[in-house]
Amino acid sequence: MASITNRPLGAGFSATRVLSNLVAQIAIWNDARVTRKALSSLSNRELDDLGLCRGDIDDIAQGRRIG
User: Fold this and answer.
1) Is residue 22 helix, strand or coil?
2) CA gap 57, 33 in Å, rounded
3) Which of 16, 24, 56, 61 yields a CA-CA distance of 20 to 30 A from 34?
4) C-alpha R_g of the chain
5) SS3 51
6) Which InterPro entries did the record assign (predicted)?
């Protein structure tokens, strides 16, 4: 007679957790993409008004602190 158990597939493996992490990573990537696009569309003068330069755009899009 076969028995059914509710054991996880591996050490800490959870399909729900994997899917949740994947969705979170896609959201982070998209937020960075949107931020990069918005900042790139600004003129150098507008960036300067914000205290930024073009070289700061990638750092800001990735959530790294400037200054």
Assistant:
1) helix
2) 11
3) 16
4) 21
5) coil
6) YjiS-like
pLDDT tens readout for residues 6-54: 665 566 678 899 999 999 999 999 999 999 999 999 999 999 999 999 9
Copy the structure tokens of residue 17.
Answer: 């957790």
Model pLDDT, residue 43: 97
| Rounded-to-integer distance, Cα 57 and Cα 64, Å | 10
Residue type, 44: N
Rounded CA-CA distance 32/26 in Å is 10
The pTM assigned to this predicted structure is: 0.71
C-alpha 25/C-alpha 53 separation (Å) is 27
Residue type present at position 38: A
CA 40 to chain centre: 18
Residues in the chain: 67
Amino acid at 46: E
